[in-house]
Amino acid sequence: MTRNELAATAWRKSSYSGGNCIEVAPGFPGVVPVRDSKDPSGPALVFPAPAWEAFVAAVREGDFPA
Questions:
Q1: CA 29 – CA 48 distance, rounded (Å)
Q2: What predicted TM-score, i.e. pTM, was given to this entire model?
């Protein structure tokens, strides 16, 4: 995946974010690019899809105390 591919993708963010959160770029086989919504031209981290899915499941389950 290239910077141009990431720039051309449709990023999405959680409707629960209140405007300051992360965005993900769906549609990349096997990986999930993630970036800071406050810095859309900044760097993106790329996680293996299974790791990202495990993280999201843990958040939903409340495994990370506030």
A1: 9
A2: 0.81
